[in-house]
Amino acid sequence: MKIAIYGDSYANGGTYNAHTWATKLAGRLGADSIDYYAESGTPFFHCYTTVLNTAHRYDRIIVAVTEPYRFPVRVEGRYVYNVGAVDNLSPQNRRNMFQWYSQVDPHYLLTVQALMIDRIRDLYPEAVFVPCFPASMNLGFDLMAVRSLALSTLGLDPEGGYRELTGWGQTLCHIPWPWHDQLADLLYQYVVAGTVPDFDTAAWPRLEGDYYLRR
């Protein structure tokens, strides 16, 4: 079975793609060939158009759904996924980005993303959708919750400790390396049985703070 993986940084493991939850999930679904289209920092519109252009080549697709609030097209050759990503843009484009993010209607963006998801579902009924953020889509779970649990486990603030944790390379797709197998197992049960994942990480591999916070 040929499977393709789409999405943002929650599904983009780069040179370590073989170790990600998405690859492990594809394996559990019977993949003997996997192609990767996930790109970090991209809006869902990028994912959507990539799916429309490529998904016909595959037997099944896995879509990691990013948040709906990202500017949909490239600016000066790159995606500006939030107002904190405007560095190195021209002064005019920085002003444009600040204006867009301050004035855009979030409900409109939610609606547009939902319509794109529905279109993918219509074209590919066997598509597997995995929300990355609480606002990605309403399936009762999201991958950001797993990241927050990891930070809390290590005694870090779920928001303030984010860069501290990922900056030292101890996570893959924002998820601790030892947790990808358990995450793939839960998502597989969700796909085959409709069981909403319960991220009870107490039984997952222990995260050692000294290791995860070492430079």
Task: Specify the structural class.
Answer: alpha/beta
For the secondary structure, the number of strands is 6
Q: Largest sheet, order of strands side by side?
A: 2-1-3-4
Tally of alpha and pi helices: 8
Biggest beta sheet attributes = 4 strands, parallel
Choose one word for the global shape.
globular
Radius of gyration: 17 Å
Poorly predicted spans = none
In the CATH scheme, the class of one domain would be Alpha Beta
Indicate the CATH topology of one domain. Rossmann fold
What percentage of residues falls in helices of 4 or more residues? 25-40%
Distance between the termini: 40 Å
Q: Give the name of the CATH architecture of one domain.
A: 3-Layer(aba) Sandwich
Strand content: 5-15%
H and E string: EHEHEHHEHHEEHH
Mean pLDDT over the full residue set: 90
Question: Briefly, what is this?
Answer:
The chain is α/β, with parallel strands linked by helices. The protein has helices spanning 21-28, 44-54, 91-103, 106-123, 143-153, 162-166, 180-193, 209-212; strands spanning 2-6, 33-36, 60-65, 128-131, 171-172, 175-176.
Structure write-up:
The chain is α/β, with parallel strands linked by helices and 215 residues long. The protein has a domain at 2-69 and 104-142 and 178-204: 3-Layer(aba) Sandwich (Rossmann fold). It is built from eight helices and six strands, in the order βαβαβααβααββαα. The strands form two sheets. It has a four-stranded parallel β-sheet with strand order 2-1-3-4, sandwiched between helices. A two-stranded antiparallel sheet has the order 5-6. Strand 5 and strand 6 (175-176) form a beta hairpin. Helix 1 packs across helix 7 (180-193) and helix 2 (44-54) packs parallel to helix 4. The radius of gyration is 17 Å and the shape is globular. It starts with a strand and ends with a helix. The model has no long low-confidence stretch (mean pLDDT 90).
